[in-house]
Every structure is written in structure tokens, then in C-alpha cells.
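Need a sequence for this fold. Nothing fancy.
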């Protein structure tokens, strides 16, 4: 017998008439449980909407109804938990104090990752890549994901691998804790018919419901015994397959790691198993990088559905991405101090890899922090000032950056006192450039011109004309007889020797991003952005420190 949709409409009308009465919500939930048999997707979609309304009612209702509404909220959440990872995460710890929960304080940041994992389960993706900074919850999220998979698909065989036995052992023990501790976690309530059939801590294997030849979960390090250990038809999760900087700096070790992955790890996965890659992006040739390159560039992998999620420590505004609720994350100040430490130790490559998820091949890095000159933000006496100029590497947005250092020239030294560094549309960057030009009383501006940016200088002139400010604005095309990388390389000694930059801690957000772009530039390989170092090469040209000098001397004959 078909479900009577008029029943749902009638109950919804009662909720709309008096949305602070808990009784219609209870009726709606019971109706949705019956409706699920006929239309699973719509029933759970409506249940999700019901949860949202209940949450709002809890905030506004008479205190005597709060507990009733809250219990109904929990029932709705449990209804979704076996099927939807986000709901599972919320329900799993719902009886813990909010500050002690893992997911709820981190949900607003980790939700995109949770959605990608759900897409894998729903067969909308085949592989996913997740990269985040250390200690923000990546491995714990993967652990919780595995406990959900084991309850949801107990007949599947899953494999978890990391670079060391210490990590795999911790992962295994964490899975046991979640399943076996009903006082802290609600796993048994989500999967009431599931039970542990066999566990082997020494072998790091775990079976749900029945003992199988290939266990529900097998944990192995990349360099452990993988052959015959698991025939993975569920999920293969690789988590930090590179141990750290020492391994990342050794190309032979990186090649050996991929060989292990390709010959030992991936061969454990059946054709339709889902693959999840997690870890710090140390190098372009780390296992994640090699796999990404295959999926992107090899036509044999063109039908593989995959998604890449990179969550850096700091966002485009130089603010922390992981300033979680209840103080369980990391603040903007924490990451800025971390960055300053890496900069002082001349290891911005490690900062970019660990915290920005941008692998850097160190032998290609052209600039290092300790190779630059710095000042505390105080300029020399104005009487010694020669001029103030601004080179502009223009862009119209769309991912490219306008880069423009504002240089105060004293003799043969240039103090980079301020910068414009923005990937916004020109409707924002041109007024911003004009504001900086007027504020600093810039007397010379040079815009690098090409076919796509030739109008940029004219629009800047017009903006300054509207503000009644005059200065010399020239355009100069980039040399067509050498590449941008070569130009930057040739001017690198002059940038190091003749320019002073604001010291760490004396910079605004855009200035910090400008410096990060300089330190990440490399001669070998590809540069995602090279706008800041290119603008500094232009600045070195303007400083004209290589000009011929005229001297008076006594005739030698």
C-alpha cells in the first residue's frame, strides 16, 4: 500500500500553525520512519529539514519543552546516523560535553572533508585526496570514518596504512575504543545489531559480525607485511605515508615509497574499492603527488572520479583556517608565529609543505629568508630619500595576483615599505593601487604591459586623475628574449643585496602573503604564482643599480 503523502502535509500544517508545540514534530518523525520504506532519499531529506526546525525551536521554546525537543532532535539524528557520515559524527558523541567532543567544535571547518567522504560512500567519487596541517584532526576524522564504515558495511574488508607501526597501532586502538566504550560513544546505538566477532591487537585486525578470511579492518604500515594481509573491497586509507622532512629530502626514499605504494599497497585494493589519500604534501614526488599526476595526466585514468581537498593553515586573508570552537584548534597568532620561526630558520619550504599544503622542491627554491635584509619599519631620514616608486605586475583577478611593492629609495638601497598583493578583480585592485600611490606620495609607477594588461595603466591613470593626483606612469613590456624565471633568476642577487623588507611581525596580511610568494618561488618545476618575485625583478630594474657610473680620474699619460 502506497504511503499517503497527505499525512505529511497535514502534520506539516500543524507544525506551521504552532511551531513551538513539540507534539507535531513527534508525529512527523514517526511518519517519516514509515515513509522511508517507500522513498528513502525524500524521507531523510525531510528528516534533515525537521532537525533544523527542531534546533530553531529549542532556542525559542518554553523551557518546559526544551528537553522534549532535544530528545526528538536526538531521535532524528539517530535516524540519519547509519546512512550519513555527518549525522553519525554528531550523534556518536552527543552525550559528551560539547567542549569534549571531537567533531562538533570542528564541524564548520571539516564539513567539506566529511562531504567528500560521503561522496565516496555514495559512489559519486572513486578517490579523494585530503591534505591539512599537523594536529588539526585529520587522522581522527579518518578513524571515525572507519568506525562508521565497519558498522555500515561489516562484510567489507578495509585497509589502513601509514608510514609507521606506531601510527597504525594508535589507529587500531582508537577504533576499538570507539566501538567498545558505550559510556563515551554511541556506536552501539547507531549499529545495534553489529558486534565484534574477533580482534587481534598483535596483527591489528578487527572483524565485525563474523570472523572472515580478510578482516573488516586491517592496519599495516607501508613497510610492514601487506602481501596476503588484506583483500580490500571496501576502503583503502593511506595516512601520512612520508615520515617527515628527512625522507622528503631524499629522492631515492621518495621513489622507494612510491614503489611500495604501487607494488604492495595499491595491489591490495580490488578494482572497485575506494581509495582515500591523506597526508602532508611534502614533495611533488611523494605518493600523493605521483598518484595525482597519474589521474590528471594519464589517459588510462581519465575515467577515475576524484576530488582534491587542500586546507592550508592560513586562508587568503592570512587568518587561521583552524581556529575551532572551545579553543581546541590553532589561532591566527599561533600560525603566524610558526611561520616566523620557519622564516628565521630559512626553511620556508617546510612551512609551505606542512602548513600550506604546497610541496616545494628545495633544490629549486631561489630565495631563502636568511638571505634577505630586513628593517623594523622605521625609514632613514627623509632628507636622504631619493624617490618613491612602484612597479606593478598587473592582473585582472581570476586567480592571478596584482603584485606591487612600494619602494622608498635611499641611495642604492630600496626599502619595501608597503605592498599591494591581491587576486581581486581590477574594480578593486585599481582603486587600491591608487590609494597606496597617494598615501605614499609615489612619484613613479611602472606597469608591466602585455596584450592582456595594456589597458591596466590607462585605467590607473584615470583613477588617479579622478582623485587629482599626478605622477609618472609608464608601461614596459616584459623582454621577449628570456623567460620570466630567467629574469627573476638574473635579478635575484640584486633583490637580496639592495632591498630591505619589513621584519616579520611588522607586516600586514598582504605583505606576509607577498613574502610567502617570494619564498615559494623556484627555478625548477612549476610555480603556481610568481607575481611577487616578478614585481621585485621589475623593482631591481627601476632601482638601476647596474647603471654605468661616470668618474673623473687623472690621465695615465
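Here you go.
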Amino acid at each position: 500500500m502506497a504511503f499517503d503523502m497527505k499525512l505529511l502535509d497535514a502534520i506539516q500544517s500543524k507544525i506551521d500553525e504552532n511551531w513551538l508545540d513539540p507534539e507535531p514534530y513527534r508525529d512527523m518523525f514517526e511518519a517519516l520512519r514509515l515513509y522511508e520504506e517507500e522513498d528513502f532519499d525524500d524521507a531523510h531529506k525531510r528528516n534533515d529539514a525537521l532537525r533544523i526546525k527542531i534546533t530553531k525551536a529549542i532556542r525559542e521554546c518554553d523551557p518546559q519543552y526544551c528537553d522534549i525537543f532535544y530528545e526528538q532532535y536526538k531521535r532524528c539524528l539517530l535516524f540519519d546516523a547509519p546512512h550519513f557520515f555527518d549525522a553519525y559524527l554528531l550523534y556518536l558523541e552527543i552525550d559528551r560535553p560539547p567542549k569534549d567532543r571531537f567533531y562538533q567544535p570542528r564541524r564548520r571547518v571539516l564539513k567539506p572533508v566529511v562531504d567528500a567522504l560521503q561522496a565516496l560512500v555514495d559512489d559519486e567519487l572513486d578517490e579523494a585526496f585530503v591534505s591539512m596541517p599537523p594536529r588539526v584532526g585529520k587522522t581522527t576524522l579518518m578513524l571515525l570514518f572507519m568506525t562508521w564504515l565497519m558498522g555500515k558495511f561489516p562484510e567489507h574488508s578495509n585497509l589502513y596504512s601509514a608510514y609507521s607501526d606506531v601510527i597504525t597501532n594508535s589507529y587500531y586502538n582508537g577504533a576499538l575504543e570507539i566501538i567498545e566504550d558505550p559510556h563515551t560513544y554511541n556506536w552501539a546505538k547507531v549499529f545495534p545489531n553489529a558486534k565484534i566477532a574477533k580482534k587481534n591487537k598483535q596483527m591489528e585486525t578487527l572483524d565485525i559480525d563474523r570472523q572472515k578470511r580478510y578482516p573488516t579492518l586491517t592496519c599495516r604500515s607501508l613497510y610492514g607485511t601487506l602481501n596476503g594481509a588484506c583483500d580490500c573491497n571496501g576502503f583503502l586509507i593511506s595516512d601520512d605515508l612520508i615520515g617527515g622532512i628527512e625522507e622528503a629530502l631524499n629522492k631515492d626514499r621518495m621513489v622507494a615509497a612510491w614503489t611500495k605504494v604501487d607494488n604492495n599497497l595499491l595491489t591490495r585494493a580490488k578494482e572497485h574499492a575506494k581509495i582515500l589519500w591523506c597526508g602532508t604534501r611534502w614533495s611533488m614526488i611523494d605518493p600523493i603527488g605521483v598518484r595525482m599526476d597519474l589521474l590528471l595526466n594519464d589517459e588510462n585514468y581519465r575515467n577515475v572520479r576524484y576530488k582534491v581537498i587542500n586546507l592550508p593553515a592560513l586562508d587568503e586573508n592570512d587568518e587561521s583556517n583552524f581556529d575551532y570552537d572551545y579553543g581546541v584548534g590553532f589561532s591566527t597568532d599561533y600560525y603566524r608565529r610558526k611561520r616566523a620561526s620557519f622564516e628565521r630558520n630559512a626553511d620556508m619550504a617546510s612551512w609551505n609543505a606542512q602548513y600550506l599544503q604546497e610541496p616545494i622542491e628545495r633544490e629549486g627554491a631561489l630565495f631563502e629568508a636568511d638571505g634577505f635584509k630586513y628593517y623594523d619599519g622605521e625609514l632613514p631620514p627623509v632628507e636622504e630619500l631619493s624617490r618613491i616608486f612602484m612597479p606593478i605586475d598587473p592582473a585582472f583577478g581570476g586567480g592571478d595576483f596584482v603584485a606591487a611593492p612600494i619602494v622608498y629609495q635611499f641611495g642604492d638601497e630600496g626599502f619595501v615599505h608597503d605592498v599591494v598583493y591581491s587576486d581581486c578583480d581590477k574594480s578593486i585592485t585599481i582603486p587600491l593601487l591608487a590609494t597606496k600611490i597617494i598615501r605614499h606620495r609615489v612619484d613613479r609607477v611602472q606597469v608591466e604591459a602585455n596584450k592582456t594588461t595594456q589597458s591596466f595603466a590607462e585605467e590607473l591613470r584615470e583613477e588617479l586623475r579622478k582623485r587629482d593626483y599626478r605622477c609618472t606612469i609608464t608601461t614596459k613590456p616584459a623582454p621577449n628574449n628570456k623567460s620570466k624565471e630567467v629574469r627573476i633568476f638574473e635579478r635575484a642577487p640584486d633583490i637580496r643585496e639592495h632591498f630591505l623588507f619589513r621584519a616579520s611581525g611588522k607586516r600586514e596580511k598582504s605583505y606576509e602573503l607577498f613574502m610567502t610568494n617570494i619564498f615559494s618561488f623556484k627555478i625548477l618545476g612549476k610555480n603556481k604564482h610568481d607575481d611577487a618575485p616578478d614585481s621585485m625583478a621589475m623593482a631591481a630594474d627601476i632601482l638601476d643599480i647596474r647603471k654605468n657610473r661616470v668618474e673623473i680620474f687623472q690621465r695615465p699619460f
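For context: DSSP finds 19 helices and 15 strands in the chain.
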